[in-house]
Amino acid sequence: MLAREAQGQVAVASAKVAYLAFKELFGSQRFLELAEAGARVQRLLWASTGTKNPLYSDVKYIETLIGPDTVNTIPVDTLTAFRDHGVATTSLDKDVAKAARVMGHLGDLGINIDQVTQQLEDEGVEKFNKPFDTLMETLTQRSRGVAPVPAHRA
């Protein structure tokens, strides 16, 4: 039963739990004092949230990750699907008890969420590093007056 409840829910549950922590941090008295001095909320970023599993709704991660002070980068196909049949309503603060329950039982299923999170973070950083390195190389070459070689020809 635990595995069935967690299947396809961990990413959203993790985001909901993170959003709760975010709201607690930026709603704290300490941050309110900083805000009075000019500090601004650092928004949460949900990156590349297209649905990869064809068994799930093509707008699953868009509809479930909507909340104030968040940013969501999505593939064009997902944006098109959302424009067609998505529902825009605040959802990050819904079903939070279920999200906490899902996250709380991952250890019982043999899932080390810290290890999984680290792996996903490492892979995500690498996916951003390569384009960044390419951009920096292009800028360096252009600043020297050298025309860069297109990536597909390198």
Helices and strands, with pairings:
Elements: H1 2-6, H2 10-26, H3 29-36, E1 44-46, H4 60-63, E2 70-72, H5 76-85, H6 96-104, H7 113-143
Parallel strand pairs: 1-2
Work out the radius of gyration.
20 Å
Strand/helix succession: HHHEHEHHH
**Largest sheet properties:** 2 strands, parallel
Cα separation of the termini: 51 Å
Helix/strand-derived class? mainly alpha
Q: Approximately how much beta-strand content do the residues carry?
A: under 5%
**H/I helix tally:** 7
Quaternary status: single chain
- Uncertain spans: none
Main sheet strand line-up:
1-2
Total beta strands: 2
What is the approximate shape? globular
**What helical percentage do the residues reach?**
40-55%
How many domains? The number is 2
Mean pLDDT: 90
Account of the protein in words:
The protein is mainly alpha-helical. It has two domains: 110 residues, no CATH class; 43 residues, no CATH class. The protein is 55% helix and 4% strand. The chain contains seven helices and two strands. Strand 1, helix 4 and strand 2 form a beta-alpha-beta unit. Helix 2 crosses helix 6. The longest helix has 31 residues. It is globular, with a radius of gyration of 20 Å.
Short description:
The protein has helices at residues 2-6, 10-26, 29-36, 60-63, 76-85, 96-104, 113-143; strands at residues 44-46, 70-72. By secondary structure, it is mainly alpha-helical. Helix 4 links the parallel strand 1 (44-46) and strand 2.
